[in-house]
């Protein structure tokens, strides 16, 4: 059974940092792109960042570029999202997903797609507030 378990969320003040983890079991990440997504109340889910199987190709949405960093440890089957300089607008439930996740840049904008076959985690809440 495939499981993606996010952790590391919490309540922080603006300007602070959090590191999210996504531990994957039952599925080998090595050859798969994995992405981080978020969904704020009343808004659609949006792609935040992706990392390709090569571990050298990364993508970021405009809203987080320069503040967030995605990385992966294939030996641990885990992906991380380092979030720095957090803002109140970063408040959301953050999800990781893999299998059939495709990321590209179109006209300088990160575009990420998934399919019904994509595996999703249960999400971790990130709240940024003073």
List keywords for this structure.
globular; four-stranded antiparallel β-sheet; single chain
List the helices and strands and how they pair.
Layout: E1 3-7, E2 10-12, E3 18-25, E4 34-39, E5 46-51, E6 58-60, E7 68-73, E8 78-83, E9 92-98, E10 102-106, E11 109-113, E12 119-120, E13 124-128
Structure description:
- It is a single chain.
- This protein is 0% helix and 52% strand.
- By secondary structure, it is mainly β.
- The strands form three sheets. Strands 2, 4, 5, 6, 9, 12 and 13 form a seven-stranded mixed beta sheet that branches.
- Strand 5 and strand 6 form a beta hairpin.
- The model has no long low-confidence stretch (mean pLDDT 94).
Short description:
With about 130 residues, the protein is an all-beta fold. It is about 0% helix and about 50% strand.
Can you summarize the main beta sheet?
7 strands, mixed
**Secondary structure: helix percent:** under 10%
Distance between the termini: 40 Å
Radius of gyration over C-alpha positions, nearest whole angstrom: 14 Å
Number of helices: 0
The geometry reads as globular
Q: Which regions contain 5 or more consecutive residues with pLDDT less than 50?
A: none
**Overall pLDDT, averaged?**
94
Q: Quick one: how many beta strands?
A: 13
Global structural class:
mainly beta
Q: What is the string of SSEs from the N terminus onward?
A: EEEEEEEEEEEEE
Percent of residues in beta strands? over 45%
